[in-house]
Amino acid sequence: MKAIIPAAGLGTRFLPIAKAVPKEMLPLGNKPVIHHVVAEAAAAGFDEILIIVSRGKESIIQYFAPNPELEKHLESAGKIDALEAVRQVSAMARIEYTFQQEMRGLGDAVKLGREFIGSDPVFAVLLGDTVMRHSSPLGAMSAAFQSLRKPSVCLEPCAEERVSRYGVAGGREIGSGLFDLDELVEKPAPELAPRLTSRDGSRLPFHAFAARYLFTPDIFDCLEKTKSGYAGEIQLTDAMEQLRQTTGMLGVTWPGQRLDIGSPAGLIEAAHALGV
């Protein structure tokens, strides 16, 4: 199965280091952040991956590429553990790359994967600066698709004061951790944000998108129709709302935790949470 990992953002919250080191290549333990994302996708069966990069992020390509000279040196030096670790990086998945020439938003980045996905019935999108703790939601999302044949987005509870930073979903519970969504809004004011409801009709806390998506190729037609929205960017959420209106969309919660590496504080918190 195929997955797209957008990793082209400028990383402005990591300046000045982001001038030379992509935020996705910052270390989380002895591996860069994006290694953890690729490993998650591959473990869930999404082992054909397109990473969306931008100029200055060539180190991501270099990281996953085989390095015969380094491997030969490690082998001759008898550093077998290090050799196996290096080989494992390039063996995790079959990875391709494409460049996002202009920073026009997440929707524009995902749209670049249309040719890569082709006629595949379903594919995953994993944000390259977010790591999951404890477990990945991709298994539950895939199971929901196999059962109901609808695309989905991973959801997590969101404090009211943070609602305006994320995409937020509304809908009703139809199964354990599974919701039939009826509204998707990008960065709403709290008083305008949709809410989920439980099976007994009670309102649940705000739930925001948690950086993992499972789409059908129909999303690409929706993206083509999507005009620039919030911040002048092509918002993936706007295309998702179109998709929801035509094919329906599910929301999936899971027992894990999203670790957002989009800021220095987030990287420190993630390292602490993972004990690395």
Protein described:
The model has no long low-confidence stretch (mean pLDDT 95). The chain folds into two domains: 1-129 and 261-276, Spore Coat Polysaccharide Biosynthesis Protein SpsA, Chain A; 135-255, Spore Coat Polysaccharide Biosynthesis Protein SpsA, Chain A. It starts with a strand and ends with a helix. α3 packs antiparallel against α4 (80-91) and α8 packs across α9 (236-247). The chain is α/β, with parallel strands linked by helices and 276 residues long. The radius of gyration is 19 Å and the shape is globular. The chain contains ten helices and 14 strands. The strands form three sheets. Strands 8-12-9-10-13 form a five-stranded mixed beta barrel. A two-stranded antiparallel sheet has the order 2-3. A two-stranded antiparallel sheet has the order 7-14.
Portion in beta strands: 25-35%
Largest sheet: 5 strands, mixed, barrel
H/E order of the elements? EEEHEHHHEHHEEHEEEEEHHEEH
Portion of residues within helices: 25-40%
Oligomer: single chain
Got a strand count?
Answer: 14
The rough form would be described as globular
Identify the CATH architecture of the largest domain.
Answer: Alpha-Beta Complex
CATH fold type of the largest domain: Spore Coat Polysaccharide Biosynthesis Protein SpsA, Chain A
How many structural domains?
2
